[in-house]
């Protein structure tokens, strides 16, 4: 039988390129889990993905009701789940004020982390039941979570600090702080209780993604045989992810990545990488990246993104926030 892969945010950029790469092999049926049905349909058509190789299912990660609804629709479809790719993300680096999800989480953390956390928890059993030889849960990572040059340039020192040990009030509230109104004394939308900073909120969400992947691995890999991993396929400097950046940044960022950092990768190549054509399947519980010669290697996660205690705490808080505990 064909494998069945669910890809979130498959309506553009990396998600679409991955859907295309997998569909083209003829070995996969792709569930495009997208918030905008028509956009996804148009995208699939323009990428040349043939009808029999994909299904679009509605998923808005910024609403936990929508996540539950998606899981229900997927389960009712009767398809097996062999691979889940948590790819969708929002990045709001120029926002002056926070925006919020349906349940009141700051939008970047709420979409990129909280929505995916619930989704992957609710689909774990389906993955576990798959008889596919290399069933996988992949969470797309970011250079901002690594000790690489890119990581250290991208992250301002305090951006490394999620801040659940010590806030300005000296209390430990952590991720709960991203939920507006949870603590009436705290009006901050940021995980560390600080002033709103859209770029940091994205980086925080990606750190949460990395901690989630590792905690999944620790809890479930041995018992289920599922591979839990993260991939950073390179900088695809031209995707919609940077749509909120100022025009000058959008103009200069692609050549900067191509010629200075040499971290640039085309959407098609990144799609093939994430589509696992060149993934070393034995690398589990880690962040897989690619070097300039397209060879994959295990990237070293930053201290923050690999802190086991923090991962445990983040997991427990996230479970409570999505209503699983
Ligand atoms: P895009 O903006 O092109 O794609 C993001 C996708 O996420 C879109 O399909 C978007 O949907 C979807 N999305 C956003 N919000 C929601 C939501 N609430 N519910 C469901 N889907 C949603 O960016 P990229 O392709 O570049 O990003 C994909 C992944 O790659 C992200 O995880 C990002 O962090 C990661 N990444 C990208 C890098 C790059 O260089 N581009 C570098 C490092 C990591 P819609 O089409 O409707 O807007």
Q: How would you sum up this structure, described in words?
A:
By secondary structure, the chain is of the alpha/beta class. The chain is built from 9 helices and 8 strands. Strands 3-2-1-4-5-6-7-8 form an 8-stranded mixed sheet, with helices on both faces. Helix 4 links the parallel strand 4 and strand 5. Helix 1 packs across helix 8. The protein is globular, with a radius of gyration of 19 Å. It starts with a strand and ends with a helix. About 10% of the residues have low confidence. The structure holds NADPH dihydro-nicotinamide-adenine-dinucleotide phosphate. The site of NADPH dihydro-nicotinamide-adenine-dinucleotide phosphate (NDP) has 29 residues, from helix 1.
Detail the topology: elements first, then pairings.
Blueprint lengths: L2 E6 L4 H12 L3 E7 L2 H10 L7 E5 L5 H14 L5 E4 L20 H23 L6 E5 L8 H6 L43 H27 L2 E6 L14 H15 L5 H8 L12 E4 L5 E4 L8 H14 L4
Parallel strand pairs: 1-2, 1-4, 2-3, 4-5, 5-6, 6-7
Antiparallel strand pairs: 7-8
NADPH dihydro-nicotinamide-adenine-dinucleotide phosphate binds next to helix 1.
Nutshell version of this structure?
The chain has helices at residues 13-24, 37-46, 64-77, 107-129, 149-154, 198-224, 247-261, 267-274, 308-321; strands spanning 3-8, 28-34, 54-58, 83-86, 136-140, 227-232, 287-290, 296-299.
């Amino acid at each position: 039988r064909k494998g069945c892969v669910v890809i979130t945010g498959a309506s553009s950029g990396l998600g679409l390129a991955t859907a295309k790469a997998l569909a083209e092999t003829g070995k996969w049926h792709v569930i495009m889990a997208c918030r905008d049905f028509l956009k996804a349909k148009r995208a699939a058509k323009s990428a040349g993905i043939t009808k029999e190789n994909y299904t679009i299912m509605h998923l808005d990660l910024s609403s936990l009701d929508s996540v539950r609804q998606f899981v229900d629709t997927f389960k009712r479809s009767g398809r097996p789940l062999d691979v889940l790719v948590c790819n969708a993300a929002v990045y709001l680096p120029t926002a002056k004020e926070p925006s919020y999800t349906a349940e009141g989480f700051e939008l970047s953390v709420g979409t990129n982390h909280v929505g995916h956390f619930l989704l992957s928890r609710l689909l774990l059993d389906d993955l576990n039941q798959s008889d596919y030889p290399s069933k996988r849960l992949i969470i797309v990572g970011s250079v901002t979570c690594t000790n690489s040059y890119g990581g250290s340039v991208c992250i301002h020192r305090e951006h490394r600090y999620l801040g659940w040990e010590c806030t300005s009030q000296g209390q430990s509230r952590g991720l709960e702080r991203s939920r507006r109104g949870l603590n009436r004394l705290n009006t901050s939308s940021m995980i560390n209780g600080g002033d709103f900073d859209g770029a940091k909120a994205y980086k925080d969400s990606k750190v949460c993604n990395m901690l989630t992947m590792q905690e999944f691995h620790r809890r479930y890999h041995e018992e289920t045989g599922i591979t839990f991993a993260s991939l950073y396929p390179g900088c695809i400097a031209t995707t919609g992810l940077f749509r909120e950046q100022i025009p000058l940044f959008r103009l200069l960022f692609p050549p900067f990545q191509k010629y200075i950092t040499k971290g640039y990768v085309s959407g098609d190549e990144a799609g093939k990488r994430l589509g696992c054509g060149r993934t070393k399947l034995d690398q589990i519980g880690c962040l897989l990246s690619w070097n300039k010669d397209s060879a994959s290697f295990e990237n070293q996660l930053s201290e923050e993104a690999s802190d086991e205690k923090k991962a445990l705490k983040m997991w427990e808080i996230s479970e409570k926030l999505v209503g699983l505990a």
